[in-house]
Amino acid sequence: MPAMDTGFRRYDGDGMQGQAMIDRFFRLSLNGTTIRTEIIAGATTYLTMAYIVFVNPVILAEAGMDRGAVFVATCLASALATLLMAFLANYPLAPGMGINAYFTYGVVKGLHYSWEVALGAVFLSGCLFLILSVTRIRSWIVDAIPLSQKMAISAGIGLFLGIIALKDAGLIAASADTLVTLGDLKAPTTLLACAGLFVMAPPPPGSSYSSRHFTGSSRRRRASPRPFSRSICAARSMPASRRSFSSSCLSTCSTTPAR
Questions:
Q1: What pTM value is reported for the model?
Q2: Helix, strand, or coil here: 9?
Q3: 177 lies in which domain range?
Q4: Domain for residue 256, yes or no?
Q5: Could you give the number of structural domains in the chain?
Q6: SS3 content of the chain, % helix, strand, coil (to 5)
Q7: pLDDT along the chain (259 residues), means of 10
C-alpha cells in the first residue's frame, strides 16, 4: 500500500486500515483534503454553530413551547441531519436558524396561530421540500434564483437574527419615535453582552500586545481559514443545485466537496 498522508504524520500503510477506510469512504484524497483538515473543519463548524443550541429554545419558548424539550430536539435533529448528510451524501451540513424567528414572531405572535398549528405547517412544508428534493424541481428552483438574491436572503436573515440578539441583550429597545433606540446600558446583562462583543472583536491595526492577547491574535484569526481553502474552492466550483440543500432552514459550510 502506498504511503498516505493523514495530515498528522506520514505512515507507510502498515496498520492503517482505519485511516485508509475513512479516506476511501469519504474520498478525502480525491477531494484534496486530509483527516486533520476535516477534524479542524468539524470542530470549527461546531464551535461556530453551537450557539443555536441555546438561542433556538429561547426564541421558540416565546411561542409557548417547552424550552427543555426544544433544547433536546434541537440537539437530536442537528446530530441526525448532520450524520445523514455525512454518510449518505458525503456533504457537509451545519444547522442554521431563520425559520424559527418567522415561526415565533410571524406566525404565532403575528398571525395569532397556536404553536401546535404552526408546527403542523412546518411538518407539511418539510414533506413538500422532500418531494421537491427527490425530483428535479428543486434544482430548477435553485438555479432560477440569482446569486445576488441568495446572498441577500442570507444577509437579511443574519441581520434579522442580529437585531433579535441585540434586543434580548438589552443593547437596543423599541421606540415610538425612532422605532429603535439604545437600551439600558447600565444593566448587568447588557454590560455582560458588551464584554462578550469586546472579546470576540478582532483588535484594531496597531493595537498593543495586551489587547491582542486578550481578544486573540489577529494573525492567527486570518491564518485559520487556510486549511479550508482547497475545499472551499472545490465547493464553489460545483453547480449551485448541488451546493444548496434547503435555503429556508439549513445552511451548508464548505469543508468537504460532495461525492
A1: 0.58
A2: coil
A3: 31-251
A4: no
A5: 1
A6: 60, 5, 30
A7: 49 63 87 90 88 91 95 93 89 80 93 95 93 88 91 88 87 91 92 88 62 40 42 45 40 37
